[in-house]
């Protein structure tokens, strides 16, 4: 039996139509006024019962899991579908499939219950609480058997699908809205039939936040102002921010006197309807206490104001008239043509060096090197200098306020050019060792790094143009070269040669040794 048939049966059992029968029996003796009153009473009873017929008094009384089917599953699905974030598919089929299981998991997560995907005692208790808040009604949908996303859907055309509804008054009640995290308008199920006044109000609230909402006649509650804060305080401005629990205009009254006189105080305002805003106060005096009152009006012109609050603007910066202090001056990296000069300042400042070969340094005509970045330490390098020359210099540093410091004249001397090497190395400590019938070793020293070479043969004097040679071109101060393939019992004559890096060459007189028998 359909829900409507059940309700009509109840109506007959309760004798709802008894007044109609009474009316039929007394028509001839009842005045017109009485007849009208009876008709109105009967109509009221019929309207009430029609409203009851729209209400489906369902409960959840059993645990459910995948594979379950029936009216209890349909109630579960209708209740879950009231929140699209939990059951976005919204299929009310009466069959507990995969999608229903996933929806149950999301419901369990939102309510701090272990996410098992089936309805156990803890989940059932929480669903029963939710069902008390959102009883079920019927939509007008009918369908035939089909399968979609694993959810089996099967309904008879004379039955209608249940869905959860929200009591219309809750949709505009501040407590309900707060419970739903302050949203302007909670979700209204498709089956919900709203009173015209509430529907028109919620439809208007879909407009952009900055459009002026049309106030409902019953709104007599002023907006609540909260989270007031002052930021970006400077010498001449500040920003004041706050929130309201409903969309409202914003205005700030401010002055240097307290309490703030709303009739004469300076103001800054914004007539757009929003829940949070920031207004900027400008043209303020530095180091001054400002008092302010915030005002917000909703669309019904209900007005809220805060108590007087205050802030102090920033002080004007003190004029900087002190020049930076230059210290720890040093000269490094002096070469024949360059030098680096370093120094420190007690505040960030620019860097400049005036220099020349005369003293005192003329700042108007001297050569300069500079860097305009503001730093506390600096090294500048002078280049293109002359060797063996005294250079005089003056350091200059300017801070951000253009206060300038200069040092007294200081000086340094560039390096002399290197002297050309024209002296040949000196050969000394000549010795012969490891002499055998076929080998020998000759060693010597030089007073500077140089190459090693031996000219040798069996005749004297040694002819450097035709003699045999052994050599090593490495620049060393200790030299040692070995002979091999010599003849036994033979006198060998030799001359040593060493050449330094400047190709200065040293040679010895003819020396000799005798191989063994």
Structural notes for this entry:
This protein is an alpha+beta fold and 517 residues long. The chain has five domains: 3-56; 71-165, no CATH class; 225-312, Immunoglobulin-like; 326-413, Immunoglobulin-like (Sandwich), CATH 2.60.40.10; 427-514, Immunoglobulins (Immunoglobulin-like, Sandwich). It contains eight helices and 23 strands. The protein has helices spanning 3-13, 18-25, 32-54, 71-81, 98-110, 121-133, 174-179, 196-204; strands spanning 55-56, 136-138, 146-148, 151-153, 162-164, 225-231, 238-255, 266-281, 289-297, 303-305, 309-312, 326-332, 339-356, 367-382, 390-398, 404-406, 410-413, 427-433, 440-457, 468-483, 491-499, 505-507, 511-514. The strands form five sheets. Strands 6, 7, 8, 9, 10 and 11 form a six-stranded antiparallel sheet that branches. Strands 12, 13, 14, 15, 16 and 17 form a six-stranded antiparallel sheet that branches. Strands 18, 19, 20, 21, 22 and 23 form a six-stranded antiparallel sheet that branches. Strand 6 and strand 7 form a beta hairpin. Helix 1 (3-13) packs antiparallel against helix 3 (32-54). The longest helix is centred in the first third of the chain and has 23 residues, at 32-54. The radius of gyration is 53 Å and the shape is elongated. The termini are far apart. Residues 1-30, 52-57, 140-159, 175-188 and 205-212 have low confidence and may be disordered.
């Amino acid at each position: 039996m359909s829900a409507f048939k059940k309700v009509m049966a109840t109506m007959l059992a309760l004798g709802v139509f008894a007044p109609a029968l009474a009316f039929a029996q007394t028509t001839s003796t009842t005045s017109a006024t009485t007849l009208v009153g009876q008709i109105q009473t009967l109509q009221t009873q019929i309207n009430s019962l029609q409203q009851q017929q729209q209400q489906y008094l369902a409960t959840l009384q059993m645990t459910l899991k995948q594979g379950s089917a029936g009216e209890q599953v349909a109630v579960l699905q209708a209740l879950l579908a009231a929140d699209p974030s939990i059951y976005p598919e919204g299929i009310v089929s009466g069959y507990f499939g995969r999608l229903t299981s996933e929806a149950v998991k999301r419901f369990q997560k939102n309510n701090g219950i272990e996410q098992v995907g089936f309805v156990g005692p803890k989940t059932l208790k929480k669903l029963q609480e939710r069902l008390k808040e959102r009883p079920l009604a019927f939509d007008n949908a009918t369908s035939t058997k089909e399968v979609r996303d694993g959810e089996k859907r099967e309904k008879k055309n004379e039955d209608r699908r249940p869905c959860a509804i929200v009591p219309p008054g809750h949709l505009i009640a501040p407590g309900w809205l707060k419970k739903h995290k302050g949203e302007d308008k909670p979700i209204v199920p498709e089956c919900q039939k709203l009173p015209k006044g509430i529907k028109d109000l919620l439809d208007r609230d879909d407009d952009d936040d900055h459009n002026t909402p049309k106030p409902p006649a019953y709104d007599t509650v002023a907006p609540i102002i909260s989270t007031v804060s002052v930021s970006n305080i400077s010498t001449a401005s500040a920003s004041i921010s706050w929130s309201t629990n409903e969309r409202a205009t914003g205005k700030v009254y401010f002055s240097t006197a307290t309490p703030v006189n709303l009739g004469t105080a300076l103001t800054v305002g914004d007539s757009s309807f929003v829940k949070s805003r920031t207004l900027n106060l400008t043209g303020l005096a530095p180091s001054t206490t400002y008092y302010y009152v915030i005002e917000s009006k909703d669309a019904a012109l209900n007005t809220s104001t805060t108590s007087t609050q205050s802030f102090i603007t920033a002080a004007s910066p003190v004029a900087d008239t002190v020049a930076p202090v230059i210290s720890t001056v040093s000269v490094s990296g002096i070469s024949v043509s360059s030098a680096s000069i370093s120094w420190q300042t007690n505040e960030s400042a620019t860097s400049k060096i005036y220099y020349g070969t005369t003293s005192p340094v003329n700042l108007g005509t001297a050569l300069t090197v500079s860097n305009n970045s503001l730093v506390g330490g600096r090294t500048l390098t002078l280049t293109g200098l002359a060797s063996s020359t005294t250079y005089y210099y003056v350091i200059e540093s300017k801070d951000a306020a253009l206060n300038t410091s200069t040092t007294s004249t200081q000086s340094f001397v560039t390096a002399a050019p290197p002297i050309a090497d024209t002296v040949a190395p000196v050969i000394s400590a000549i010795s012969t060792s490891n002499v055998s019938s076929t080998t020998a070793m000759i060693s010597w020293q030089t007073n500077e790094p140089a190459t090693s070479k031996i000219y040798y043969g069996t005749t004297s004097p040694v002819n450097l143009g035709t003699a045999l040679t052994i050599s090593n071109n490495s620049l060393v101060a200790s030299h040692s070269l070995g002979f091999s393939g010599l003849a036994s019992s033979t006198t060998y004559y030799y001359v040593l040669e060493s050449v330094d890096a400047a190709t200065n060459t040293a040679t010895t007189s003819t020396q000799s040794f005798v191989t063994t028998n």
